[in-house]
C-alpha cells in the first residue's frame, strides 16, 4: 500500500515507519526540515517537507495515498486545533475506500482496573479535546477509519517511564521520589509492539473501531520506582509524592499520570492477530535500559 505517514521521526512514528517498510509498504513521510527528511529517506521512505497544519499539502498527500497513518501531534496548547485541521484536510482529500489510522491514547478512558474499548470515556482535562475529533474521524462516511489508543509507551530508554529515573533523591539515606503516591498503575506497551499493531490494523481492522494498544502488563508506579531505586544504588527506597504536589510539578500531565489504569488489550489480539512479545517495562528497567548514562 501507499502510505502517507506523519510523525515519522518521532518516538512512535519512527518505529511505525520501520515496521511499514519491513512489511513492504511504500511510505511518504511529512517532515519539518531537511535533516528529518534525510533520516526518513535513509529508512527507505519518500520525504515531503511541510507541516501538518498546512491543509492544502495534507489534502494533496492524502489524495495520493491508499492510507494515512497519523502519529504526529504538536504536544502543546495548539494540539487540539492542529489535529482538528489535520483530520479535516485528510477527510477532504482521501478517496472513497481509503484508510485513516489515527493515534489517540488510553487516558481518554479515565481510571479503571479493567479498561476496554467500551469503557465510557472520562478524560482528564489534558486530553478532553480528543473525543470530538476521534468521534468525527471514526464516523466519517466512505472511508475506513480506525483509532489506536496506546498506553504508556516504553522502550529504548525513552518515553514517560524515563521520568521515574528522573525523580528527586530526598532524605538521608536518600530515597527516590515517585511520580505520585505509588499505588496507581500504568497500562503499558513497548514501542516496537505498538508499531506492529499499526501494521496489523492497517490491513485487518474494521472501520469505525478503536483499539487499546497495551501489552497486558500494568505495573504500579511504586513497583517501577522501587526497581529504579535499586538501579540507582538506593536499595529500593522510595518516597511517595502527594497528588497535589504532582499536579503542581507537572500540571495536567501530572494529573493524567495519577490515574490508576489497567488493561489487557485483548480486543487487538483477538481481532487483529496482534501478538505483543517484547519485555515488560519492569524487565526493561531490570535490564538497565533506562539507567542514566
Automatic annotation (TrEMBL):
InterPro entries: NAD(P)-bd_dom, NAD(P)-bd_dom_sf, NAD(P)-dependent_oxidoreduct. Transmembrane segments: none annotated. Residues 7-81 form the NAD(P)-binding domain. It comes from the Bacteria. This is NAD-dependent epimerase/dehydratase family protein. It comes from Paractinoplanes bogorensis.
Amino acid at each position: 500500500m501507499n502510505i502517507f505517514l506523519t510523525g515519522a521521526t518521532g518516538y512512535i512514528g519512527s518505529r511505525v515507519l520501520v515496521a511499514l517498510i519491513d512489511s513492504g509498504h511504500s511510505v511518504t513521510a511529512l517532515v519539518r526540515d531537511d535533516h528529518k527528511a534525510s533520516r526518513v529517506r535513509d529508512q527507505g521512505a519518500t520525504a515531503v517537507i511541510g507541516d501538518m497544519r498546512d491543509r492544502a499539502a495534507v489534502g494533496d498527500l492524502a489524495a495520493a495515498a491508499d492510507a494515512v497513518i497519523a502519529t504526529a501531534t504538536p504536544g502543546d496548547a495548539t494540539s487540539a486545533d492542529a489535529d482538528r485541521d489535520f483530520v479535516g484536510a485528510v477527510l477532504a482529500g482521501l478517496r472513497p475506500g481509503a484508510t485513516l489510522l489515527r493515534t489517540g491514547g488510553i487516558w481518554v478512558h479515565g481510571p479503571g482496573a479493567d479498561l476496554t474499548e467500551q469503557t465510557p470515556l472520562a478524560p482528564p482535562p489534558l486530553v478532553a479535546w480528543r473525543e470530538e475529533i476521534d468521534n468525527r474521524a471514526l464516523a466519517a462516511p466512505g472511508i475506513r477509519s480506525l483509532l489506536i489508543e496506546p498506553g504508556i509507551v516504553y522502550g529504548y530508554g525513552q518515553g514517560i517511564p524515563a521520568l521515574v529515573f528522573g525523580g528527586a533523591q530526598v532524605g538521608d539515606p536518600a530515597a527516590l521520589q515517585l511520580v505520585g503516591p505509588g499505588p496507581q498503575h500504568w497500562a503499558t506497551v513497548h514501542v516496537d509492539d505498538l508499531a506492529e499493531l499499526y501494521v496489523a490494523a492497517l490491513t485487518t481492522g474494521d472501520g469505525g473501531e478503536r483499539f487499546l494498544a497495551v501489552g497486558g502488563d500494568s505495573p504500579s508506579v511504586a513497583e517501577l520506582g522501587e526497581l529504579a531505586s535499586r538501579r540507582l544504588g538506593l536499595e529500593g527506597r522510595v518516597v511517595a509524592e502527594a497528588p497535589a504536589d504532582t499536579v503542581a510539578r507537572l500540571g495536567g500531565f501530572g494529573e493524567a499520570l495519577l490515574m490508576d489504569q489497567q488493561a489487557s488489550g485483548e480486543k487487538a489480539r483477538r481481532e487483529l492477530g496482534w501478538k505483543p512479545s517484547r519485555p515488560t517495562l519492569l524487565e526493561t528497567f531490570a535490564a538497565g535500559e533506562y539507567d542514566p548514562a
